[in-house]
Amino acid sequence: MSPRGIPIGRVFGITIDLDYSWFLIMGLIAWALAVGYYPTEFKGWSLGEYWLVGSATALLLFASVLVHELAHSLVARHYGLAVKRITLFLFGGVAQIAAEPTSPMQELWIAAVGPIVSLALGGIFWLLKPLAAGWQPLFALVEYLATLNIILALFNLLPGFPLDGGRVLRAIVWRVSNDYLRATTAASVTGRFFGFLLIFLGVWQALSANLIGGMWIAFIGWFLESAAGSQLQQEMLKHLMGGHKVRDAMDRSFVTAPSHVSLQDLVEMYMLPSNVGYVMLATGDTAVGLATLSGVQEVPREEWAITPARSIMVPLEKLETTDPNTVLWSAFEKMGHDGVNELPVLEGGQVVGVLTREDVVHYLSLLKTLAA
Ligand SMILES: [Zn+2]
Prior knowledge:
The mean pLDDT is about 85. The protein has 12 helices and 10 strands. It is an alpha+beta fold.
């Protein structure tokens, strides 16, 4: 899952994004606090004070989440893992760490520092309480933030993926068993268990007393359950691809056409007869770029006969490429990150193959059949 939204700035060189769902949840929390929680707990404030404190609480809550994610990010960076962005969204925050930790100790510290920092924040807000005692709205705000940060820390310590506690669990099982896949499976299974438990608790709450709160808990449970499931799936894929290189799965017999042919000919003589959506264009014997079906579609059909294929070509030097010895999994991930469907495979400046998502999927199903 990689939510992406509006960048609002950079902290320690890391871009901070607000996903669109953030505005929704931000408004909902401010509203729930201003008209629900605070008026019930504290009588006699003005309407403005309820809304001021409600909005400030919601903002500071997300600031606390941001500090928690920054803690993960800085420790990850300390271990040499790049962090591109932190996105705040419906369920809190997520730091996009470019690679998985390479040792159990890295995993342990990157995961554990988040809840540790949230606990520390809770403690700081708790210590600030006496200072805020002079004005009740401020006191209420500080007390709420102290409690929420401690709850945030404890919730995140539940030992199941994708929560921090799940990563701590994986680090421990990984360390003890020396088996990364087994550790991932363990943390995913417990993650799905906690997800189902929250769904159950939420539905029970919704039916008995608290409809909105219960539905929200069930929703969080559903999110955890599906995230844990897809994490496991991804690790299985990675495991299945383990040790295989781009050269194993790439298409060596890709279709090549001269770059001067018309789009009409490109489609009728190259794409359709070979049942492919991309054609490598060449000048003489040298591949110069890639023409794809989506590129063809951008030109009106009546101009196909008079438009040369090279006019829609993406030149080789502008394409994301890979080489035959790249690990298949990382090439596959790269296609996902960059949103491309085909990667030309270069060796010594020559195109020796093309890797498509379909090639990878096909190769995987072959491996799966052989493994079974
Ligand atoms: Zn965390």
